[in-house]
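hey so u asked for the seq, here:
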Amino acid sequence: MNKLLVLLLVVCMVFALTSCTNDAPAEEPLASDSVEDTAAADDPYADLQELTMKTAYYASYDNDEEYVGEVWAMHRLEEFWEEKSGGKFKLEVYDGGVMGSDDAVLELVSTNSLQLFIPSSESLASYNNDFAILSLPWITDDIVAFCKELNEGELGAYFANLLDGTGLKISGWYTWGSRTILNSVRPINTPEDMAGIKIRVFPSQVNVDLYNLLGANPTPLDWTELFMALQQGAVDGLETSSSYMISGQMYEVTKYLSLTKHVYGLSTMIYSEDFYNSLNDASKQLFDEGMEYYCTQAMAKEMENEEKNFDLLGEYVEVNEISPENLVKFKEAIAPLYEDYRDQFSEELWQLVGR
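ran it, structure tokens below
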């Protein structure tokens, strides 16, 4: 009987304790937990991945920041990502052309061996010939408005669609400066002055056809081979922007700089589609912001640098402007080029570029 009484008392005590526990108010979350959850929800970068993005180009990353707007902008991009990501986004740069030609580097980006590259528009013509229209001389008289259309308008959308299925994506466009002529033979003032000059051109048919039309001897040559070719007399000159003339020290093996400004070099930041698809939403957002930031900075710096670069080159070579009268002669001389290429591009594309 005593045992039964003890057992009943134990049961009653357990029941009472259970009831008290169930009736107690639920434990409130700590205020710090609530603040952290809210902060995470408000921070678009809260879930950033740790990324190392590899890129390559011809200039020196350490030595050419002052003269080459693209290099200057890449340094700013590195700082931008470092600050915004808290060190999670890093850049790994292979400079000086160590990765080979534009075609070779684009192939590396398409397979995600590299994640970023800034080729000129000519290089993209190997993927679709419509990109070659951007290399025609004097395609625009307003490069700022033209780049705005490439970045925000139908023209940019047109070119972006051309890379579907290649593994490459376009993030934005900018100019790396007007292309002028540097050579060792004579100053170029009129189209006739081009006669017989062996000029290095970027390996593209538009460039070859242009200089053939002007009576020169165009020689397609990779940039990494150019200095020695000039030094040895295999070519007499080149055409490129002032920033790359300085970067490549081409003024050491030439004599005359003629400011033809016949083409504005156009580049775009290309990125790997496979790489981009591997990013989460937070990382995509910061990546996209970085791409826009880079293109804006590169464009502004290249345009700011150009006249200063011409002045610097003038300390080493003879510089001449092209008079308005002679500029008209150049445009008349290259008019057949537009006629020859009229059928190569659709009427839609001609209208988009304003021709």
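The mean pLDDT is 89. The radius of gyration is 30 Å.
lmk if thats what u needed
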